[in-house]
Design a protein that fits this description.
The complex is a heterodimer of chains A (about 120) and B (about 110).
Chain A: E1 5-7, E2 10-13, E3 19-24, E4 31-38, E5 42-50, E6 65-69, E7 75-79, E8 88-95, E9 105-106, E10 110-114
Parallel strand pairs in A: 2-10
Antiparallel strand pairs in A: 1-3, 3-7, 4-5, 4-8, 6-7, 8-9, 8-10
Chain B: E1 3-5, E2 10-14, E3 19-21, E4 24-26, E5 32-38, E6 45-49, E7 60-64, E8 69-74, E9 83-90, E10 98-99, E11 103-108
Parallel strand pairs in B: 2-11
Antiparallel strand pairs in B: 1-4, 3-8, 5-6, 5-9, 7-8, 9-10, 9-11
The chains are: A mainly beta (about 120), B mainly beta (about 110).
Chain lengths: ~120, ~110
């Protein structure tokens, strides 16, 4: 596709439920990032995948959060036992193999609301 | 730890007035710094990078290593500049960006 695609665009769930958010990066981009955008916290790094290397999980806020990237393309971010503080917009971004220019290409985000 | 601070969550100026969005960083090495912008109902996108020393849409940003700042400036604000602005840092050898908390800029007519 022309850009990074994320689904669902909106998700409302009840506290304690699990959710899965999907990201389809730009074709040919081997690096994939997840960020969380929330009021007051700005843009928080969650996790980064680069090719077949081990992902950088240093930004995941708790063990309820996990992500995988199958086949070096599509990624899924899973939040287990959701809490109200998980409510945010989850942004996915991709970039060519080496982040030389600092340009990340972002998707439109998945807005998560936990009731 | 590497950190980016944008002290103003909200900034409101009148059309035609100068605008400055502040960004400070904490990093002892040689950083790469960027400004990203998100217009209403659009995706977050790169606005400019310090290494290019470019002016984009009338905006410029100068890296001041002494003050560890990278403020974004425009001499005459326009209504279409209203958006959310994020300052971002890429530290040496890293493959990820650290973003600030963002500043919502509103240009009043």
């Amino acid at each position: 596709g022309a850009g990074v695609s994320q689904s669902p665009s909106n998700k409302v769930t009840e506290k304690g439920k699990d959710v899965e958010l999907r990201c389809d990066p730009i074709s040919g981009h081997t690096a994939l990032y997840w960020y969380r955008q929330s009021l007051g916290q700005g843009l928080e790094f969650l996790i980064y995948f680069q090719g077949n290397s081990a992902p950088d999980k240093s930004g995941l806020p708790s063990d309820r959060f996990s992500a995988e990237r199958t086949g070096g393309s599509v990624s899924t971010l899973t939040i287990q036992r959701t809490q109200q503080e998980d409510s945010a917009v989850y942004l996915c971004a991709s970039s060519p193999r080496v982040l030389k220019t600092g340009e990340l290409f972002f998707g439109e985000g998945s807005r998560l609301t936990v009731l | 730890a590497q950190r980016v601070t944008q002290p103003e969550k909200l900034l409101s100026v009148f059309k035609g007035a100068p605008v400055e969005l502040k960004c400070n960083y904490s990093y002892s090495g040689s950083p790469e710094l960027f400004w990203y912008v998100q217009y209403s109902r659009q995706r977050l996108q790169l606005l400019l990078r310090h290494i290019s020393r470019e002016s984009i849409k009338g905006f410029t940003a100068d890296l001041n290593k002494g003050e560890t700042s990278f403020h974004l400036k425009k001499p005459f604000a326009q209504e279409e500049d209203s958006a959310m602005y994020y300052c971002a840092l890429q530290f040496q050898g890293a493959q990820k960006l650290v973003f600030g908390q963002g500043t919502r800029l509103t240009i009043n007519p």
